[in-house]
């Protein structure tokens, strides 16, 4: 599976967990999506779940004129995934921006990709300080 497909699969699992409208847990999501725990998608899912509070506190100051609770669920998941990769993976920032902007174009509201791009860029600037 390509890294893009891995990210998309992780997004689907984490969205189902975030959504909480289905009786789904991480193990069920893995089975439904036929993911492997040791895959890149599995690493992202595990990392976002394990570091969720930290990731949310990392994202929140970069939401200009916005609060985390007001974000739609797909954007919350995308930003947590991106911040996880920025913080815990060696993925180049250009790749992170490109991948999550593309996922936002596919799954979020029409122009939300611009917002996602801006927040990810600010997260990266903060990390470089």
Automatic annotation (TrEMBL):
HAMAP family: NusB (MF_00073)
Signal peptide segment: none
InterPro entries documented for this protein: NusB-like_sf, NusB_fam, NusB_RsmB_TIM44
Gene Ontology molecular-function annotations: RNA binding
UniProt-listed NCBIfam families: nusB
Lineage: superkingdom: Bacteria
Name of the protein in its database record: Transcription antitermination protein NusB
Gene3D superfamilies for this protein: NusB-like
Database matches in Pfam families: NusB
Similarity field: Belongs to the NusB family.
Biological role stated in the UniProt entry: Involved in transcription antitermination. Required for transcription of ribosomal RNA (rRNA) genes. Binds specifically to the boxA antiterminator sequence of the ribosomal RNA (rrn) operons.
Residue span, NusB/RsmB/TIM44 domain: 5-123
One Gene Ontology biological process: transcription antitermination
Coiled-coil region list: none
Transmembrane segments: none
């Amino acid at each position: 599976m390509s890294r893009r497909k891995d990210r998309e699969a992780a997004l689907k699992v984490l969205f189902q967990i975030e959504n909480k409208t289905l009786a789904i847990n991480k193990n069920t999501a893995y089975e439904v999506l036929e993911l492997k725990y040791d895959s890149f998608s599995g690493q992202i899912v595990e990392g976002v779940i394990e570091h969720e509070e930290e990731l949310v506190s990392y994202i929140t100051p970069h939401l200009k004129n916005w609060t985390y609770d007001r974000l739609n669920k797909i954007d919350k998941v995308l930003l947590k995934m991106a911040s996880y990769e920025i913080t815990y993976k060696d993925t180049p920032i250009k790749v992170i921006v490109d991948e999550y902007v593309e996922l936002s174009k596919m799954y979020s509201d029409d122009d939300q990709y611009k917002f996602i791009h801006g927040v990810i860029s600010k997260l990266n600037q903060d990390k470089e300080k």
